[in-house]
Amino acid sequence: MGLRRPLLIFLIGLWTTTGLIAQSGFITTWNTTNTGTSDGNSLTIPATGTYDVDLGNDGSYELLDQTGTLTVDVTTYGHTAGEIQVALRNAASGTGTLDAIRFNNAGDKDKLLSVDQWGSGISWSTMQHAFHGCSNLEVKATDAPDLSGVTDMGYMFAR
After folding, report:
1. Which pTM was predicted?
2. pLDDT tens digits for range 36-76
3. What's the average model confidence in pLDDT over 70-90?
4. Dist CA 116 CA 135 (whole Å)
5. What pLDDT shows up at residue 18?
6. Residues 131 and 105: beta-carbon distance below 8 Å
7. CA distances from residue 28 to 57, 84, 88 in whole angstroms, order as listed
8. Burial (CB count <10 Å: 0-12, 13-18, 19+), residue 146
9. Can you give the chain as a three-state secondary structure string?
10. What is the end-to-end Cα distance of the chain in Å, rounded?
11. pLDDT value at residue 19
12. Within 10 Å of residue 131's Cβ, how many Cβ atoms?
């Protein structure tokens, strides 16, 4: 009984300092067959920062330490063309963080269908032109994005 409290305090400290308490990622749904700049098997993520990508949102991050805009053929990773959920998280390696997404009325803007979760682990730096032109976008997320570092939200959801 006397060791329970110190053990609990130790475990909480360990979890919070080592990142063992999972932080949720930024989850979106796409349709690769919609029109865009990439082919019908692919999607282009206009992100900035360093991040990991989980195609299919199954907990298995196929692409690690990605930086900047990324075009990925989902069939290369065993998924079929069409609708797919994609989770992004800050790079688990600690080399950087995902801090912005910027469609700016270009690229695969019509392939993005929804924002399903903003993610507790993502601290956005800007939302300027983030989803500008994403004509099929529906925000289904029930959580709120961390906008504490954002100073510009201009044209965030402009059509």
Report:
1. 0.86
2. 999 999 999 999 999 999 999 999 999 999 999 999 999 99
3. 98
4. 16
5. 40
6. no
7. 9, 8, 9
8. middle
9. CCCHHHHHHHHHHHHHHHCCCCCCCEEEEEECCCCCCCCCCEEEECEEEEEEEEECCCCCCCEEEEECCEEEEHHHHCCCCCEEEEEEEECCCCCCCEEEECCCCCCCCCCEEEEEECCCCCECCCCCCCCCCCCCCEECCCCCCECCCCCCCCCCCCC
10. 61
11. 43
12. 22
The pair of structure tokens assigned to 73 is 């053929």
Q: Structure tokens of 122?
A: 């993502």
Residue type, 8: L
Q: Which are the contacts of 9, defined by CB distance < 8 A and separation ≥ 6?
A: none
CA distance 8 to 71: 44
Identify residue 104 by its one-letter amino acid code: N
Q: Which amino acid type is present at position 48?
A: T
- Two structure tokens written together for 10: 């130790």
What is the tens place of the pLDDT at every residue in 13-22? 444 434 444 5
The pLDDT tens digits for 114-149 are 999 999 999 999 999 999 999 999 999 999 999 999
